[in-house]
Design brief:
This is 1,4-beta-xylanase. By secondary structure, this protein is an alpha/beta fold. It folds into two domains: 1-153, Alpha-Beta Barrel (TIM Barrel), CATH 3.20.20.80; 166-282, Glycosidases (TIM Barrel). The chain has helices at residues 2-6, 37-49, 81-104, 123-134, 173-187, 219-234, 254-258, 270-280, and strands spanning 10-19, 53-62, 109-114, 140-145, 161-165, 190-196, 239-244. Strands 1-2-3-4-5-6-7 form a seven-stranded parallel beta sheet. It starts with a helix and ends with a helix.
């Protein structure tokens, strides 16, 4: 249904490993909310049978609700280096597990990191992650920077695709894309907006990254934002793809979806705009 409603040509499958807090070293990617490898492989095969490209995105979140951009050990005292090494070893194990699966299932891209802002200064350790992941997966490797943080990543030369979580406000979207263009040109890499979105509530177009926003239901707000997004991206040929958050993994009935004020697309008029924009580019 997602392809029929939006004319998308790819699906980004997000997998959410968990750690207890922002300074916990252990990463659990086998908890009961994660699909089994067999379930995931079946879904990838099904997606490919529909003609969709498949992008695998294994991320890590904190159980206590802290955003993953805060994960770090530099604020834990002078003996923190061992904790950094331990976390990166666990993180590498997590990524290698899905790198193997991505290779076996012929995924088109692996997003091996997402919005881990306070870890990015550990350039050497990130380069080791990339090197080890490449031993198991020979497809396109992408790192997803957090919004406004693209300049802080020092290992862009080691990836194939520069990604960003591009939740930029409607009024500054063009400006931020022009800023990112300079980074893309510096490293001569492919660029994809690997995640972006806007809630269907008043105020979200100006602050699409504010997931706790609770304005009144507004389809017009969501449509206006995506219209601007597609217009601005169409002016810049260095942008090679847009990933939109989100399509529900389990669909409620249409009446319930129509009342949703969040990012989900199903059951909302914005699907028609997205379908038109993507159909024109195929």
């Amino acid at each position: 249904m997602m392809r029929a409603k939006t004319a998308c040509n790819a699906v980004i499958i997000v997998l959410g490993a968990l750690q207890e807090t922002f300074h916990t070293e252990w990463i659990d990617y086998k908890h009961h909310f994660m699909p089994t490898d067999e379930e995931l492989a079946d879904f990838i095969q099904y997606s490919r049978s529909l003609g969709l490209k498949v992008i695998l995105k294994p991320i890590v979140n904190c159980k206590d609700g802290t955003v993953r951009s805060c994960i770090n050990f530099s604020e834990q005292g002078l003996s923190s280096e061992g904790k950094w090494v331990s976390w990166f070893l666990n993180y590498t194990d997590y990524q290698i597990h899905y790198a193997r699966l991505a290779k076996d299932t012929k995924c088109d891209m692996l997003i091996f990191g997402s919005q881990l802002v306070k870890t990015e200064h550990k350039e050497k350790l990130w380069r080791e992650v990339i090197s080890q992941v490449r031993e198991y997966y020979n497809g396109q490797l992408c790192y997803e920077a957090d919004k406004y943080q693209e300049d802080g990543v020092r290992f862009w030369d080691a990836v194939d695709v520069i990604g960003t979580s591009g939740y930029y406000g409607q009024k500054c979207l063009g400006h931020e894309l022009d800023r990112i263009k300079k980074i893309v040109e510096k490293y001569h890499k492919t660029f994809v907006i690997t995640e972006c979105g806007c809630k269907s509530c008043e105020g979200s177009a100006l602050a699409p990254d504010q997931w706790i926003l609770s304005g009144s239901l507004s389809y017009a707000e969501q449509i206006s934002y995506y219209k601007t997004l597609f217009e601005e991206c169409s002016k810049r040929n260095f942008i090679k793809g847009i990933g939109i958050w989100a399509w529900q993994s389990r669909l409620d009935n249409k009446e319930i979806c129509e009342k949703d004020r969040g990012y989900f697309l199903y059951g909302k008029p914005v699907c028609d705009l997205i379908h038109m924009a993507w159909k024109e580019n195929q």
